[in-house]
Amino acid sequence: MRRQCSSRVPAALALLVALAAPRAYGHDFWIEPARFRPDPGSALTLPVHVGQDFNGESVVFLPDLYERYVYVGPGGERPVAGVPGDDAGRIPAVEPGLTVVGYRSIRDRVTFDTPGEFAAYLEKEGMERIAASKKRQPAGRPISEIYSRAAKALIQAGPVREKPADRRLGFRMELIAERNPYALRPGEPLPLTLVYENRPLEGALVIAFAKDRPREKLRARTDGHGRVRLALDRPGVWVVTSVHMVPAPPRTDADWESTWASLTFEVPAR
Fold it and tell me: Which positions carry the signal peptide feature in this UniProt record (predicted)?
């Protein structure tokens, strides 16, 4: 498996991007704020990570690596601030209430040298329907895939209210919490909706796990309305993830295109 940097990155930044690029593909991509429950008015750093089971590397803050990086609170939407090359963006002052942070990456590309390598990756990520399709898998040459990622985080400052539960940011693929997770008790189900290109996505595998027990994963498939209910059985930081793959558009010179989504938050202890 070989990963290539996007052609959108200027040549002058090529070395920095290469150093910043994840060394592994097909792993989790998530936003993990320095605090999920900051004090209202405080500054907050927003590291973006790539890795596995809450163990990974920070993605450097580079506007050339994302299409959109925003936070949305009671006062509306604002861009996440940061210095190019730093290891995190930041919010200068968190508003009271629920703030939604969203990061939508640019497209990137990966190549699988053999059909077996590609099939193993599909099985691991719960995309058996793609693995069963031989229509788009070329024989005798590597399989290329373009991909992009959309990560969100929910941050609660001050008193907790049921509404709003989340905000839809309009990403190509997006996980949306239908209840405020900070109002949940451990074990109480969290309903979520998964949308792709503004439509509910049916039959997608959704995975959730807590930071203190990352190998104990909850798995569920979305119903016809793109919904799942996850019983979060312990307090602490959680991430919910999903991925969807379609044949790549003709002009991309790739075989497949995948879109990844994640949502992080903290379930409070009661």
Answer: 1-26
Provide the 3-class DSSP secondary structure of residue 218. strand
User: Taking the model in full, what pTM does it have?
Assistant: 0.87
Length of the chain: 270
| Residues whose CB is less than 8 angstroms from the CB of residue 144 and which lie 6 or more positions away in sequence, other chains included | 109, 110, 111, 112, 248, 253, 254, 255, 256
Model pLDDT for residues 141-191, shown as the tens digit of each residue: 788 899 999 999 999 999 999 888 899 999 999 999 999 999 987 678 999
Give the residue among 146, 176, 172 at the shortest CA–CA distance from 240: 176
Helix (H, G, I), strand (E, B) or coil at 225: coil
Q: What is the 3-state secondary structure (H, E, C) of 155-204?
A: EEECCCCCCCCCCCCCCCEEEEECCCHHHCCCCCEEEEEEEECCEECCCC
Domain assignment of residue 153, given as a range: 2-267
Number of domains in the chain: 1
